[in-house]
Automatic annotation (TrEMBL):
SUPFAM superfamilies: S-adenosyl-L-methionine-dependent methyltransferases (SSF53335)
Protein known as: tRNA (guanine(26)-N(2))-dimethyltransferase
Keyword presence, Methyltransferase: yes
This protein's GO CC annotations: nucleus
Length: 432
């Protein structure tokens, strides 16, 4: 269905936010927004021209981070794949900032329609100016609209008039969970939900009661907390989807240390799963470094092989969360093919997109459990020098274990090898 929005159908109520939103500031609290009528007068913004993937845009006083470009690349690749396979693409960019994502969805992914929403109506001049690079169109041909509602309100409104989206992008500060239900309702079945969380405290296990409230997961400190952050976010969506009679699968998951930022792209399917083997608990033993997954029906059987007794104070448990693969390998392979087609690979800056997507494909092996082993931590626990990742990888493969790099941290391996065997193999490698 093409655009059915008209200024009448939309309520352009608006909200005041802090004037200057710089990345170091605390998140704006939507509860602080004061509603007042939408202002038609043009808004003065300080002009600063930026370029991302050859697209020019301005950021004015809006919240904008260059470091998020990789997250935007991944979003645009996915949106384009969706358009190619479904023939149409309607996007809700629920927290659009200066509108760069909306612009990229229109220009690069050839979106038929983008609703660029940001609660802060001070951003209006910048967003509209940026999107004006694409002809707006009218009636059924209208390609974009700019609104200033709280994201929840935007999604509820669209849902109430059965105006559904193929892709909803929620690039929020802090945790996302408050948006999940409204996002599922406003999304087409088979549609894509792109979530962002910047809640590093919760994923690090420093606020277990916060993560419990937000994601239904009690998270304890573990050395692979950044992967836990992704799994906690997916798990929160799994839970919320089940409530509505849906289920979700992650197409990719991306951690970036700027922020930190946790991003996941989920596909939403009809029907809830009666037995979800991918939703459960992760344990970590601070004594020996061993980690394993625990299903709901194994909750009474928790223990670590290094301990004689079943109950050990060195054992911590986090969850429930997503236990399955972080990415869908065939899907990420398609993203990589498209990135190559667009000349987005081998740019030699930061973590190259080709390398990132290649590691994601490795990480998707369903035999790999949650978590990773940081080589230096393993070496200091075993009182040995650390073998190279390359040597260790081939030794693990030779013994029949699954192994991959981690896109989250360079000096670590993901494997299904128990820690005691891992250390034995590492010692052998250092002696050979
Ligand atoms: C991280 S920035 C968005 C950056 C943008 N997506 C990009 O890629 O450059 C978050 C934006 O969300 C807006 N915002 C915060 N809370 C909101 C809410 N509840 N509903 C809608 N917008 C909100 C802020 O005004 C801010 O512009
Ligand atoms: Zn142990």
């Amino acid at each position: 269905m093409l655009l059915t929005l008209s200024p009448k159908a939309l309520s352009f109520s608006s909200f005041t936010l802090h004037k200057s939103q710089n990345p170091r500031r605390k998140s704006p609290n939507p509860g602080q927004f004061q509603s007042f009528r939408w202002r038609c007068s043009p808004i003065f913004v300080k002009s600063e021209v930026q370029i991302e993937r050859d697209i020019e845009f301005e950021t004015g006083e809006t919240f904008f981070r260059h470091e998020s470009a990789r997250g935007r690349d991944l979003a645009v690749l996915s949106a384009s794949l969706y358009k190619r396979s479904n023939g149409s693409l309607r996007v809700l960019d629920a927290m659009c900032g200066c509108g760069i994502r909306s612009l990229r969805y229109l220009v690069e992914a050839d979106a038929d329609f983008v609703m660029a929403n940001d609660a802060n109506d001070d951003n209006r001049g910048v967003i509209t100016g940026n999107l004006s690079r694409v002809e707006r169109g009218t009636g059924e041909e209208r390609r974009w609209v700019v609104t200033h509602m709280l994201a929840n309100k935007a999604m509820i409104e669209r849902y109430m008039v059965a105006d559904f989206f193929d892709l909803i992008d929620i690039d929020s500060f802090g945790s996302e969970s408050a948006f999940l239900r409204d996002a599922f309702n406003a999304l087409k079945l088979g549609g894509l939900l792109y979530l962002t969380s910047t809640d590093g405290y919760s994923s690090g296990g420093h606020r277990p009661y916060n993560s419990l409230a937000a994601y239904g997961a009690f998270i304890r400190p573990m050395p692979f907390g950044n992967e836990i952050g992704l799994r906690m976010l997916i798990g929160g969506a799994v839970r919320e989807a089940a409530l509505l009679g849906y289920h979700v699968t992650p197409l990719f998951s991306y951690y970036s240390y700027h922020g930190p930022v946790f991003r996941v792209l989920l596909r939403v399917h009809r029907g809830k799963l009666h037995e979800d083997r991918n939703y459960g608990f992760v344990t970590f033993c601070h004594l020996c470094g061993h980690s394993r997954t625990v299903r709901w029906d194994e909750l009474g059987l928790m223990g670590c092989p290094c301990s004689d007794t079943k109950a050990s104070s060195s054992l911590v448990v986090s969850g429930p969360m997503w236990l399955g693969p972080l990415h869908d390998a065939p899907y990420v392979t398609e993203m990589l093919e498209l990135a190559k087609e667009w000349g987005w690979v081998s740019e030699g800056s930061g973590l190259d997109l080709e390398k990132l997507l290649s590691i994601m494909i490795e990480e998707s092996d369903p035999r790999l459990p949650p978590g990773y082993t940081i080589m230096d931590q393993m070496a200091s626990r075993a009182k040995i020098n650390s073998p190279s990742l390359k040597k260790m990888t081939s030794a693990l493969v030779k013994e029949g274990y699954a192994v991959s790099r981690s896109h989250i941290i360079s000096n670590a391996l993901k494997t299904n090898c128990p820690m005691s065997n891992f250390i034995r193999i590492a010692k052998n490698e250092m002696q050979s």
